Amino acid sequence: ISYRSYFEFGYRFTRDIAILELADDVPKHIHHICLPHMNKKINIGDPLLRMSSFGWGADPIRNLTMVIFLQKLMLGVRMTEKDCRKIAPEKLSDTFCTIRRPDQNLGVGDSGGGITAKIDGRTYLAGVVSGTTPYLDKKKRPIPSVQVTDIVDI
């Protein structure tokens, strides 16, 4: 993820994150997440891969305020590019969408959180939440999707 890209292209639900390389190793008592590009056998783009995220965010559509406990959100699988573009035509090519449930939703304040997938007992970072789509359908219900920045280009 290029730091320069944020300033060249601006913030459009992407490029609003940073992945840092630490000068020191992470202590052994802290469990770290695996990056998919470090293991060539992992296909983070598998359309059947079930993903999840975590957050404390509020959901203004349902008039919910910030919660006091960390929520685990089951996001399911990636939407197809075609379906994602139907609800987010301005979506950039380095992002993907996931389906959200009406009772679980990434909310205001969850941007920057990781999208994870468990593969062979290890947790991998599949992407980073860039934002949720605030669009409503004809019955004024939220359309189920989440836009995520793909981290494959690290």
Total number of strands? 6
User: What integer is the average pLDDT?
Assistant: 70
The CATH C-level name is Mainly Beta
**What CATH architecture label applies?**
Beta Barrel
Main sheet makeup: 6 strands, antiparallel
Element pattern in H and E = HEEHEEEE
Count of the domains: 1
Count the helices. How many?
A: 2
Strand order of the largest sheet: 2-1-4-5-6-3
Percent of residues in beta strands?
Answer: 15-25%
User: Can you tell me the residue ranges where pLDDT is under 50 for at least 5 consecutive residues?
Assistant: 141-146
The portion of residues assigned to helices is: under 10%
User: Structural class from helices and strands?
Assistant: mainly beta
Radius of gyration: 16 Å
Shape: globular
End-to-end gap = 5 Å
Gist of the model:
This protein has 154 residues and is mostly beta strands. It contains two helices and six strands.
What keyword list fits this structure?
154 residues; mainly beta; Thrombin, subunit H; 6 strands
Tell me what the structure shows:
With 154 residues, the chain is mostly beta strands. It has a single domain, classed as Beta Barrel (Thrombin, subunit H). Helices cover 9% and strands 24% of the residues. It contains two helices and six strands. It has helices at residues 3-9, 81-87; strands at 51-55, 71-76, 95-98, 114-119, 122-132, 146-150. Strands 2-1-4-5-6-3 form a six-stranded antiparallel β-sheet, with no helix packed on it. Strand 4 and strand 5 (122-132) form a beta hairpin. Mean pLDDT is 70; it is low at 141-146.
